Task: inverse folding
């Protein structure tokens, strides 16, 4: 019975193996992935363990931006900040409520 | 103390804490070791005193009772020495407690939602990459191991899931834990983390994983019939490999 190739299973070797060359668009995507950062801490909610208010606040700040500038692309940053910390079941529910007109927060109409 | 753990899951005949993988857990482990030594010394000392008092001064061994009734000096000594020991213990304890509350700027947010009876995870950072609109989502059900072919052995009973959450090492992470229906609790002993998942609440904890590995945990708040069957599996990869993993996922989508 041949001995198994132990070297192939050594995690150190697997994880430090050099990665193959990437195409230009792959490299661009990789750079984009490396540059992404999450929603920064908000000093108004810094000490709290419960960040539900932070999430609600970010979502409504995006709506305030939409209401004042009416520019969807310009307010995309604010929407991303909100979506990064809000669970999708919450943000999807609020999106639906806004469509139906029963959203309890900032009204953009 | 000899402890043998494999893959940061509970091990057979494990008598002590699991191997640490985060700074918090390392702190807890070191503090626990020092405390355990001090406690052993105190217990042995008190035990010896008790034995000495009973054995040598029992009526059978000691016919003459003492005329020694009280002593102010002795009372001062045996009050102030325990107080001093407690003060000495409190210093590393408070240091650790406040270090756990350290404010750090997170680079990645992992949203964890407890359902009856599985965990679902979301990473939404990469939504804006290449016009993606979907968050990275994992829904992790426990893997049922009965009926697996004999070639697929070696899994941990009641701990394996169909998907494993991938996280980077040496990165400040923010975990936001909530629940979709009833109370759950998300825990990984190797990270020294246990967070309650309350519906309507988004509990935040910071995490900094120091090494690669596969870490297991289980739901820690009674949530119905299958409370014992909703495990958690985290795989931590070096940052470079994590970026490549995300890139592959985005390309596939």
Result:
């Amino acid at each position: 019975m041949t001995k198994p190739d132990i070297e192939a299973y050594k995690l150190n070797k697997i994880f430090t193996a050099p990665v193959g060359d990437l195409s230009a668009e792959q490299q661009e995507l990789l750079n984009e992935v490396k540059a992404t950062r999450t929603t920064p801490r908000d000093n108004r909610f810094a000490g709290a363990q419960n960040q539900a208010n932070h999430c609600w606040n970010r979502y409504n700040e995006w709506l305030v931006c939409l209401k004042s500038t009416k520019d969807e692309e310009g307010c995309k940053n604010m929407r991303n900040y909100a979506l990064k910390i809000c669970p999708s079941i919450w943000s999807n529910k609020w999106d639906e409520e806004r469509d139906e007109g029963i959203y309890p927060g900032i009204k953009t109409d | 103390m000899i402890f043998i753990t494999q893959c940061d899951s509970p091990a057979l005949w494990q008598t002590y804490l699991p191997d640490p993988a985060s700074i918090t857990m390392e702190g807890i482990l070191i503090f626990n070791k020092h405390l355990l030594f001090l406690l052993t010394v105190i217990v042995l000392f008190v035990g010896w005193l008790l034995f000495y008092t009973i054995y040598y001064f029992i009526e059978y061994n000691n016919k003459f009772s003492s005329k020694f009734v009280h002593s102010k000096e002795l009372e001062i000594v045996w009050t102030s020495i325990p107080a001093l020991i407690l003060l000495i213990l409190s210093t590393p304890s408070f240091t650790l407690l406040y270090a756990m509350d350290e404010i750090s700027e997170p680079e990645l947010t992992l949203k964890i939602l407890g359902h009856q009876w599985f965990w679902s995870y979301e990473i939404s950072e990469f939504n804006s990459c290449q016009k993606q609109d979907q968050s990275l989502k994992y829904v992790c059900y426990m893997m049922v191991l009965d009926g697996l072919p004999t070639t697929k052995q070696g899994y941990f009973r009641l701990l394996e899931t169909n998907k494993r959450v991938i996280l980077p090492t040496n990165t400040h992470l923010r975990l936001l834990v909530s629940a979709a229906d009833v109370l759950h609790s998300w825990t990984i002993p190797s990270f020294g983390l246990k967070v309650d998942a309350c519906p309507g609440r988004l509990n935040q904890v910071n995490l900094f994983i120091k090494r690669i590995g596969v870490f297991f945990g289980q739901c820690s708040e009674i949530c119905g019939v299958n409370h014992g069957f909703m495990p958690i599996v985290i795989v931590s990869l070096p940052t470079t490999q994590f970026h490549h993993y995300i890139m592959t996922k985005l390309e596939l989508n």
Chain B has two domains: 23-62+69-101, 108-252. Chain B touches chain A through 39 residues (CB under 8 Å). The domain at 23-62+69-101 of chain B is CATH 1.10.287.90 (Helix Hairpins).
